[in-house]
Amino acid sequence: MGMTMTQKILAAAAGLPEVHAGQLIMADLDMVLANDITGPVAINEMDKFAAKGVFDKDKIALVPDHFSPNKDIKSAQNCKCMREFAHANDVTHFYEVGEMGIEHALLPEKGIVTAGDTVIGADSHTCTYGALGAFSTGVGSTDAACGMATGKAWFKVPSAIKFILTGKPAKWVSGKDIILHIIGMIGVDGALYRSMEFTGDGIAHLSMDDRFTIANMAIEAGGKNGIFPVDEKAEAYIREHSSKPYKIYEADPDAEYDEVYTIDLAALKPTVAFPHLPENTRTIDEVGDVDIDQVVIGSCTNGRLEDLRIAAEVLKGRKVKKGLRVIVIPATQKIYMDAMKAGYIETFIEAGAIVSTPTCGPCLGGYMGILADHERCVSTTNRNFVGRMGHVTSEIYLASPAVAAASAVTGKISGPDSLGL
Amino acid sequence: MKACGTVFKYGDNVDTDVIIPARHLAITDPKGLAEHCMEDIDSDFVKKVKAGDIIVARKNFGCGSSREHAPMAIKASGISCVIAETFARIFYRNAINIGLPIIECREASEKISAGDVVEIDFDEGIIYNKTKNESYKGQAFPPFMQELIAAGGLISYMNQNVKTH
């Protein structure tokens, strides 16, 4: 019986000729990631392993991005714990403030994850690297500790859902709209325990940044991973960013899928997820009148250069609605610099937005944009759970950078068409 | 192994942000986390919970973030088991890895009410509702996970069974 793309990578990682859905395997890892929230908990467990130290100093990435630059004394202590661990174990990929970025934008940019890799990260959005044709999935701190100490992780081999993407999306429809549409269609547990494998001629029309966004939110449908085939665009990205050897896996023609969906990208509209679940989606023409207090453009989902380019295109020559707070967060130092050179940062500041150093900050209600009671935020982030960005009565509306930027101008949830764009 | 306690009942998609909000994630000590457990979904939980009590929820319990702080907070608050129709996969892994007992059981998830007193026989996978005098059969763990649980969690299992560098 044929294997899915994910199953082929897992078989190779487990040193097996083939695997089947439901099988429990022990896999070798190419990269283990942790951040300043999950890392310290993992580091505290490291001494309990029979294997001492780290399995491979080049295959561990430690990124202080969530509450960093340190928001308070406790987060400062956590970052210190990571820094000391990284130095003591000579960890190659520790990224201090000044060189760090939001982990899931940073690792592909630095070229330390690539096609064919098996990656775990103590962060649920580790599934982002599926855009590069890697198997990557989120785990907790104990799994990350185990990965750092032994280079191994156990997996239950997932079955898969196939999403055939066809056609070319309209101008203001991006990867965010595509993944919100899919989550709206299958629900927040629609892909529970399973792979989401994307295929079809429509992928050729998606930029790498679109694909990172789509793979990033596989977890919001409950998926174990989201994965794209490695086409010319992906290979070009990999060659530009990485010197690591990579391997391209393809699903077998006779691979079995639990379900198959065909999605015509040309028919999609800008899409918004209403509180308090990412599955509560409405297209932009169905949103009605929703006044807002804040806009956030950033995060591991939508803080990449193309996201900022789109937001700048909408905000160029326009002003943020009086009384609205608009926070733009480039996801990495490189993205920040590139956006500056391209003039986007100037556009944001002239419009009346603020621009922050890279951080996860407001996405998880950490700092830098916490909401008060009953406030509403349009955000390009990934979750709109109760209290996620602040007070339990606050509300988050998930949207693309184009919708977030247009909403920043009008003060209510709006598409770029409302500005004549 | 057995557990017995009073039930706290919740609905679908209880996410890790309501189990332990990010404003408390700089805490790494389990007892400190337990002081804020379920804070954004049930502000009475911390006041009422007793050692041995049981959480019963519907589908996709623990969805969202990978924070192990969520099962750590639940375990440290004294909860002896979480029963749900389904669990989000990272929460499922984390619970097994740290030794928080969990059971998937649709019937129990549907029929048990808040305040019911429930007894669980983990060896048999039987959930007995003393208040309603009903029994439900939970989903058994695959053999590998039983070994992992019997070893006392992931770290002990790896130390005993897997050769590394």
How would you describe this protein?
The complex is a heterodimer of chains A (421) and B (165). In chain A, helix 10 (305-315) packs across helix 12 and helix 10 runs parallel beside helix 13. The model of chain A has no long low-confidence stretch (mean pLDDT 97). Chain A folds into 2 domains: 5-263, Aconitase, domain 3; 272-419, Aconitase, domain 3 (2-Layer Sandwich). Chain A is built from 13 helices and 18 strands. In chain A, strand 12 and strand 13 form a beta hairpin. Chain A is globular. With 421 residues, chain A is α/β, with parallel strands linked by helices. The N and C termini of chain A lie far apart (50 Å). Chain B is an alpha/beta fold and 165 residues long. In chain B, helix 4 (69-76) links the parallel strand 2 (54-56) and strand 3 (81-84). In chain B, helix 7 packs across helix 8. The longest helix of chain B has 10 residues, at 89-98. The radius of gyration of chain B is 15 Å and the shape is globular. Classes of the chains: A alpha/beta (421), B alpha/beta (165). At the A-B interface, helix 2, helix 3, helix 5 and strand 7 of A face helix 4, helix 5, helix 7 and helix 8 of B.
